[in-house]
Structures are given as C-alpha cells and as structure tokens.
C-alpha cells in the first residue's frame, strides 16, 4: 500500500436487514493516521455501518476495501489476516465478564498475537496498555467491579492490544461524564499520533466529534443516504443541509425537516 | 371476497408462515450442529481455539456442581418408586420384588431421564442465559472481530463438558436412586439389606447400564446443544435472556423425552 493509498475505502455500500433498507450509496475513504467520524441521528444506521466495516454484517451491495483487498470478497484466510489488524471498542465495551481487565486485554494476544510471546510478556503488555488508559490499579478487577467509563477505557486498551492499523470505536464517549469524555478524546488523538492508525468513530456527541474528527460522513435516516461529507468543523461552517445544520448546532430543525427523523 | 373465504386464506397464510418459521429454525439447528461437528474435528487436530480455564470451569459447574441436586432428586425418585411399588406388590405378597422394580426402573430409565431433566433446568438454562447475556453485551461480536468462532469458544466446551459429565452423573444417580429404594424397602417392608441388594444385583444386566449410559450421553449432548442454540439465537435485550432460558429448558426437556421414547422403541425392536 503506497503512502497516498487510503487505509479504508467504502464504495457504493448498500446496507439492509432483509428487505428493510438501512442506507445505500455510502461511499467514503479513510486516510491513514486520521480520525473519521460517522455521524447522524439515532437509528440512521451508524452502528450498522460499523458492523459492515468490521466484518460482522455482510453488505447487500458494494465494497469495503482494506488496502487492495475487498473484505467481503476475500477468502477466510485473507479476512482473518485483515481482522488481525483491527482494534474494536464496542458501545458497551463488550468486556468478557468472567475475565479480569488484564485477562481481557491479554485475550487478543493469546488468540492472535505473537506465539513466541510468553504469558509474562503478555501480562506486561496488558499492564502497559491499562496504564495508558489510566487503569493500572484496576488490572485484576472484574468488569462488574468498575464503572462504565472505566469499562470503556479497558475496552480501548483491549482494542489496542495488537497495535491495530484500523481502530473502530462505537460511541466511545456515550454515557461518560464531560471530564471522562474529554480525557477519552485526548487519548484517541494521542493514539492517532502515536500509532498512525486509521480511526473510525461512531458518535453523535458534538464536543467529541468536533474535538477529534479529521473527516466524516453524515447519514440520514429519512433519505437513507449520506447527506454530507467532510470534517465536522467544516460541516458546521459550510454545510447548508438544514438537518445537518441543526444537528451540529444542537438546534431543533424546522418541522418539515424533522419529520421522519428521531 | 366473502368473509369466510377471507378467513380461510388468512388462516392458510398463517399456517404457511408458521411452517416456514419452523423450517428456518430447523435450518439453524442443522447449521449449528454442523459447526459443532467441525469444531470437534478442529479440536481433535489441536486447532480449536477456546479458553481452557473457562472450559474447566464449565466442566466443574456442570459435573461436580450438579451433584447436590442430582443426589436429592434421584434419592427421592428411588424412594418414590419403592413406595409405589411396595403398595401394589404387597397386595400380592410379592414385596421382595420391590428391589427388582427399583433397580431396573432406576438404571434403565429414571436415573438417566431425571438427571437429564435436572440438568436441563440447571445447566442448560445456565448455558442459555450466559450466552444470551454475552450476545446482549456484544461479547459474541467481540469474539468474531478477534477472528474466533463463537461455536469453538463458547459452544464446544459446553457441549463436550456436559456430554462427558452426564454419563458420570448418571452412574452416580443410579447408586443414589438404589439407595433411596433401599431406604424405603428396609423401613416399610422390613426387607433385609442383603436381600434388597442381592435381588437388585440379580435383576440388573449389563444391557441396562449400557442403555442408560448411552441415553445419558445423548441427553447430555442435547441439553447442552439446546442451551447453546437458544443462547446464540437470543435477541439483544434483557427480556431476550429470559426467553432464551425458557426455550432452552422447554426444548431440552421435550427433547429428552422424545429421545427416551426413540431409545425405548429401538430397545423393544432389538429385544434389549
């Protein structure tokens, strides 16, 4: 992959649950070392789009390319190789409840990491990552013994376990207090700088998307198509679509624009 | 279109939808069964990926962890068999045949069936609840993004653990059931211990144990499979966990009775 090649290319994606269309004509590119925001109102298909990107849901049509490889046309071995370069933070963190935080972070290393790495080395790396997200003191706690914000950070540490080239974060700051949310934003920017990963974030938290977004796409629940493309700050200044305009300014849109949207 | 004709068409459409829905479930069952068989193949080749600590915990929970309830239920069932048998047999002065009744019924049928029903309500329900909760918490999705098959990681250890533990629990249940029968025989019929145990030994044949153990192997697989299947099919909300658990228990118990009937027919046909 050359330096100018986008890390992720989505082309003509059509997403549907059976006969129910979610979104169509979704196309965008995510540059290496950038934070790409998937925006939109509730129920527009943001998390569904993420599921298509991380291989959990096949598209009805269209392509998802990682480098030169179309994920959904690749054979299982090639998909496996692509997946090993993923780091995913799920909306609810998805920590394994019977494992401690350290064990959760070590799991990707055990399953997909360097086989020569000993258990002690894995533990050491897990502790380093937990320290990075400010959870070094909680390494031996179970997920049900920590707060929602701590779970998110532990989920992020697990997502970073294999030094991913592609980092996917689903609503990372949802449900967090403003200070924790701000810290998480700073952590994401820090990771982008340090790892050079392509970061895809699903969020509708305005402070977060303005703080971290380099580029983005705005999905619409009514037309079932993207209605805006660009960095959130740029969209705030220049996008003239009334719903995007109202959304990014946290305003109530005119009734005819709001109709059909949640 | 007349009202009656419209009603008939609607009823036919509902029937069609019902049949299609059941066919879809059958397809899902076949798919999971195939995946479990492939996962067993990978396990035998040393390529299956699962958490050994979790697998060991499942073995302990579904084996040793079930001893208490298996003991209590089978002890009482053995005692009930002896009590019901004694009331009838005493009328003919054939009280000593209680030992034959209890031993054959326990070893051939009751120990295997009652243990499987207990496991369905206990372990099968626990499997369904655990996996359904993991679905709701996106833990199953997290496994998939790690390139790990949920069937290998979650279903395989559970199915193997319960399939292997159930025959052991069955053997233990036989002993406890016979003990329950002995307690009633000794207390109610004044049957000597020596006579009870010697009549039991005479009445039992190796085929009774083979049949009981074979059934318990099938029951263990079925109960674990039903629990995992309904857990994996669960929706992503709190109510879905309850629904998955109920379905796992109901289908587990119904399946156990159906398989038992099939075994009974086969045993009859083979004159075992």
From TrEMBL, chain A:
Keywords assigned: ATP-binding, Nucleotide-binding, Transport
Protein name: ATP-binding cassette domain-containing protein
Domain ABC transporter per the UniProt entry, residue ranges: 8-246
UniProt xrefs under SMART domains: AAA
InterPro entries registered for this protein in UniProt: AAA+_ATPase, ABC_transporter-like_ATP-bd, ABC_transporter-like_CS, P-loop_NTPase
Transmembrane regions: none
Gene Ontology molecular function: ATP binding; ATP hydrolysis activity
Coiled coil feature spans: none
Automatic annotation (TrEMBL), chain B:
GO terms under cellular component: ATP-binding cassette (ABC) transporter complex
Record Pfam families: MlaE
Domain of life: Bacteria
Keywords recorded for this protein, A-Z: Membrane, Transmembrane, Transmembrane helix
Molecular function GO terms recorded: phospholipid transporter activity
Parts of the chain that traverse the membrane: 64-87, 168-189, 209-229, 249-270
Protein name per the record: ABC transporter permease
Species, as recorded: Stagnimonas aquatica
